[in-house]
From TrEMBL:
Swiss-Prot/TrEMBL keywords: Acetoin catabolism
Name of the featured protein: Acetoin utilization protein AcuC
Keyword Transferase: no
Residue intervals of the Histone deacetylase domain: 32-327
Superkingdom to which the source organism belongs: Bacteria
Gene3D superfamilies, sorted: Histone deacetylase domain
Biological processes annotated in GO: acetoin catabolic process; epigenetic regulation of gene expression
Pathway: Ketone degradation; acetoin degradation
UniProt keyword RNA-binding present: no
Family membership noted in the UniProt record: Belongs to the histone deacetylase family.
Molecular functions (GO terms): histone deacetylase activity
Amino acid sequence: MTEPPAGPGARSCRASLVYDESLTRYDFGSDHPMNPVRVDLTVDLARAVGVLDGLRLVDAPDATEDDLVTVHDPALIEAVMATSNDPTKVDLARGLGNDDNPTFRGMHEAGRHVVGASIEAARQVWSGEVDHAANIAGGLHHAMPDRVSGFCVYNDVAVAIRWLLANGARKVAYVDVDVHHGDGVEQIFYNDPRVLTVSLHETGQMLFPGTGFPQDSGGPEALGTAVNVALPPGTADAGWLRAFHAVVPPLLREFAPDVLVTQQGCDSHRDDPLAHLALSVDGQRASYLALHDLAHEAAGGRWLAFGGGGYAVVDVVPRAWTHLLAVVSGHPLDPTLDTPADWRDQVAERLGVRAPSRMTDGRSVAYQDWSGGFDPDTWLDRAVQATRDAVFPEHGLDPLM
C-alpha cells in the first residue's frame, strides 16, 4: 500500500485568498442545497485555526460584461440581467427558474462577483504576485455558454482560464475533483489543445449531469485533452486515490502546463446528501496535498484553486476547505487538530446543530499504487483502465504501464 506524503515539505509558498463577505450574496435561498453559509463557516474556521494568517486576503472585484462574453453568449447575460432585476421573469430554455437554479434578485451581480474573484486569483498567480491563489466561492463548473446549469450561473473557472490564455499562458491544465462531472469547463475547451481538462467524478450512469465517460476525450483538434474518470458509486478513499494517482500525475507531467487550475468540490464525501461516493475529509485532504505537489512539479508552482460543490454544509465543507486553504498557504494542518470550541459554539448558536470536534474523520489514506497492475474484475479498475486506454496514447504514454 502507498501512503501519500504528509505535506508539501519545506516549500515557502506565497499565497492569497480572494474573498469578501459579499460573495455570499450568491444565494438561491435557505432551502437550496447550495447555501452560502458553507463559505462563511469555512472562512470562520480557517481564521480560528490560524490558516488565514498564512494567506494574503484580497477583496473580490466584479467581472465586466467584456469578461463574461469571453465564455458566455450575450443573450444569456441579458437573460440573467433581466431575471436579476425581476425574479419573476424565468427563462427555462436557459435554465433560469427551475429547481436547480431558482431566480433571485441580484443574480447577475452575485454571479459576476464570483467571476471577478476568480479572474483576480488568476491575475495574481500569472503576474507572479503569489504562487497560489484560491477562491472558495468559485468553481461553478456546470455553467454553459448559453445556459445556467447545476447551481452555476456563470462559469468563473472557464472565464479565468480564458483570461490566462489571453494574457500569455500557452497551456493550462484543469483538474476537477468534484463528485459531479465538470461538464461546462470541458465543453468550453473541448476542441482547444491548449487546455487539458481532467475530471474525476461519480459515473454519469448514476449522477447529474449524466456525462463524462472515458470515450469523451476531446475534439478533432484536441484529442486526448478531455480526460474523464467515471467512478463507481461507493468509491472510498483508497479507491479514489488509486484512480487519481493512476491518471492525473502522469498526464500533468507530460502536458507540462504553465498553470494548474483545480476545482475542489467536496461533495465526494460519504456524508454529502446529493451523491454516492464515500470519501473522508482525510482522503480529500490527501488530494489537495497531491495537487499542490503537482503544481510545483509540473506547473512551475503556479496553482489556482477553486471551491465547487459540497452540501454537507456544517459537517464537511468547512473542514475540507480549511484544509485546502492550509495546503494553498504551504502550511497544511495536522489532521488530528481539534476544531476550536468558539467556532463550534458559533455554529450551534447560528444554526442549532453540533459541529465536528476534530479536523479529521480518522481514516487512513493509504492506497494500492497502479504499478502493481489492474484487476479487470473490479468496476473501479475497469473504469480507470478505460480512461488510460482512451487518452494516454494521445500523450505518448503507455496505458498498460
